[in-house]
């Protein structure tokens, strides 16, 4: 125990002896928050630009449905051909496009309305808002159709009465927290990427000290190899947990971004992910023969997997085949648990995500232990 504490002190002193390392390790959380704020922007006066592709012509029900969407709060409508809508969505000029198929009005009257297609590449934020209101409106039309019993004249009469009816309405203004939650979610995504590189950099100390023969001098002392590796793991975890605490503190207290879930729960999830990051970085160090090779492996693993897991942009924008890959990545399960808790689900519903993160940590740890044990070049570490 005494040897381990001495090695922890030595590692901390050697790691933070220069101001560059202080900036690197403690500046990463600030970078994650700033990136999220720049990419997500602010919540004031957010407008949703919706393209309308009307393939049903001048049918009254279709036109009324389009008018209903246009009357929604913070919604801008523009009617255009499908090809032009696709181009504007790809260019980012439209948030989503609604495609009303030919015969839509007739299917509503029959009581079996055909689905209105919603096309979007900006994730589910814009599309879910429109979809929820559109489905509610179409459901009302379906109820009228069922009440009409298949009679078109009766449907027209009931529909006309429905449009002419007055309903008492009271309105209250609520604070929109979705933008803040999106910024917090994106901050966690960027932090997940940076935590991997921070853990990889700290685990690289093992390789650097092997290259400059520092570890040989340490091994010549009464210090055991097990204490040497354990001290690196403890320092690694301590630094990353400090990054987590700093991120949550700066995000909530300085930038005023509320994560949308209890801070204690967010801290627990990120600390659990820290275990995954440390164990993965040790596995990379176990397979690498030099610090240069370890850096190359980190670049090949950390950045692409973070992209596929949705750390930098919504995975909904990816093809379905690429979305399936995300299920095999720990970053995805961190964001999955975080996103569900932001929606207000019970803690019990994120237990599967927590268990998957624990499984990743155990798997990477066992892989690192096995590889260190089999690697003759690294036998002095175990």
From TrEMBL:
Keywords, alphabetical: Cell membrane, Membrane, Transmembrane, Transmembrane helix, Transport
Protein family membership: Belongs to the ABC-2 integral membrane protein family.
Residue ranges of every copy of the ABC transmembrane type-2 domain listed in the record: 151-375
Listed name of the protein: ABC transporter permease
Single GO term (MF): ABC-type transporter activity
Organism this protein belongs to: Cohnella pontilimi
Transmembrane segments: 21-39, 188-207, 228-251, 263-288, 300-321, 341-370
One CC-aspect GO term: plasma membrane
Record flagged with keyword Protein transport: no
Subcellular location: Cell membrane
Membrane topology per record: Multi-pass membrane protein
Keyword flag Cell cycle: no
Native organism taxonomy: Bacteria, Bacillati, Bacillota, Bacilli, Bacillales
